[in-house]
Amino acid sequence: MPIAHVHSYGCQQNVSDGEKIKGMLALMGYGFSDSNAEADLVIYNTCAVRENAEDRVFGNVGALKHNKRRRKGMLIGLCGCMMQQEHIVQRLKKSFPYVDLIFGTHVVHRLPELLYQALSTKERVFETPDSDGVIAEHLPIRRDGTLKAWVPIMYGCNNFCTYCIVPYVRGRERSRTSQEILHEVSGLVSQGYKEITLLGQNVNSYGKGLEEEINFAGLLRKINGIEGDFRIRFMTSHPKDATPELIDTMAECEKVCHHLHLPVQSGSDRILTAMNRHYQREDYLKLVDYARSRIPDLALTSDIIVGFPGETREDFLKTMDLIQTVGYDSLFTFIYSKRVGTKAAVMDDPTPSEDKTKWLMELLEVQKKIGEDKLKEYVGKTLRILVDGPGKSGEDYVTGRTEQNFIVDLKGPADLIGNFVDVRITKALNWALLGELL
Ligand code: SAH
Ligand code: SF4
Ligand code: F3S
């Protein structure tokens, strides 16, 4: 049996594509290895969102040269968002002659055909068309987990935030029909999956362009109606499209987790406008207030970009103020990274990168304290967790997540894994909670 090694570098959408790639390879007769050392086929499924993601891929592809020398007939394939950028493909063509197959985000479903071409002609294959609008349904999927599953509900993005490459590499927004989604989720639940995460770059614009009359809140209600003991998560919600209807739906649907990832990016109105985000600080804070009034135990998380072109110390302090005002449970923070072809790439960017790094450190320091205080609020409370693996706190521990997505370690037998259990929180560590089984 030939062995494939498939590695996905990017967001959950990218990981989900990787699961389809593995599904197709499995049907083609491949087995799998977690290491590239004994692989006959290596596929790197790349991410283009920041420069360091791209650098990592180039480094790892460079290292494969040696594998190829050692292993005759080995094939190297690259796919994912980086491959939708002409300048990247040109660089790979020229400087990485040992890469055999390059395919883009719109032709993942054609992998069997493209791989056959590479194997039978022994020539390099490049297939990175820009055309989109295609949703390839019913591909085989080889999922990474047995408890938690990713389910894309839409592809692409129409928002063109000025810093972001995603709309260029993923194409225009398009939604799957609710019938296909419901069919997939029902299948997963009957196979024993306990947590379904619905994916889209902006799930709140789900349904646009479909023949059926449906929006994201409507889809959530339908999925919530599927029988079985499981949880629903979703990401990502763009604040400009997160409506009171969405919040009400979250409050009313018992399977939908009380966690909202609501990327704010910046606390400065001037920067939000320059980012093309279509909301201002006050709109965002109003939405947060409404969400908390309807769902008091809601966990809120966000993405922040530090050092957008033209961001001043004053703008940055507004972001600091916003994170203190909101009090996020956790944050994903990034230093702005210039992406070729985006509008922000040609904006003036006078702030030295050392300043940006310093600002980011300041922000992380403040958030650390906020996050720790949030965790402490849970001590003494009873929470339901999905036990999902062995614990870190000792040999006889298991671990799981609350619906707010906090990690809880507790003493308990391994056969709890895969079950929902009620836990009383006894202690807050700085990375997780400790609890005892009720
Ligand atoms: N569609 C999602 C996010 C996709 S990218 C949304 O709109 O929220 C995930 C995060 O990466 C973004 O929220 C942003 O914070 C960050 N990001 C995107 N482009 C970036 C860039 N050029 N530099 C730094 N961070 C970036
Ligand atoms: Fe990028 Fe903005 Fe689209 Fe998110 S909404 S993927 S940040 S362009
Ligand atoms: Fe990266 Fe593409 Fe996702 S750029 S973040 S893998 S959509």
Automatic annotation (TrEMBL):
SMART domains linked: Elp3
Domain MTTase N-terminal: 2-120
GO molecular function: 4 iron, 4 sulfur cluster binding; metal ion binding; tRNA-2-methylthio-N(6)-dimethylallyladenosine(37) synthase activity
Keyword annotations of the record: 4Fe-4S, Cytoplasm, Iron, Iron-sulfur, Metal-binding, S-adenosyl-L-methionine, Transferase, tRNA processing
Cellular compartment(s): Cytoplasm
All residue ranges annotated as the TRAM domain in the record: 376-438
Record's function text: Catalyzes the methylthiolation of N6-(dimethylallyl)adenosine (i(6)A), leading to the formation of 2-methylthio-N6-(dimethylallyl)adenosine (ms(2)i(6)A) at position 37 in tRNAs that read codons beginning with uridine.
Broad EC category: transferase
Details of cofactor binding: Binds 2 [4Fe-4S] clusters. One cluster is coordinated with 3 cysteines and an exchangeable S-adenosyl-L-methionine.
Protein name: tRNA-2-methylthio-N(6)-dimethylallyladenosine synthase
Residues that bind [4Fe-4S] cluster 1: 11, 47, 81
The organism of origin for this protein: Massiliimalia timonensis
Gene Ontology CC annotations of this record: cytosol
Record's subunit section: Monomer.
InterPro entries: Elp3/MiaA/NifB-like_rSAM, Methylthiotransferase, Methylthiotransferase_CS, Methylthiotransferase_N, Methylthiotransferase_N_sf, MiaB_methiolase, rSAM, rSAM_horseshoe
Superkingdom of this protein's organism: Bacteria
Primary localisation category: cytoplasm
Catalytic activity: N(6)-dimethylallyladenosine(37) in tRNA + (sulfur carrier)-SH + AH2 + 2 S-adenosyl-L-methionine = 2-methylsulfanyl-N(6)-dimethylallyladenosine(37) in tRNA + (sulfur carrier)-H + 5'-deoxyadenosine + L-methionine + A + S-adenosyl-L-homocysteine + 2 H(+)
Cofactors: [4Fe-4S] cluster
The UniProt record lists the keyword Metal-binding: yes
Residues engaged in binding [4Fe-4S] cluster 2: 157, 161, 164
UniProt family annotation: Belongs to the methylthiotransferase family. MiaB subfamily.
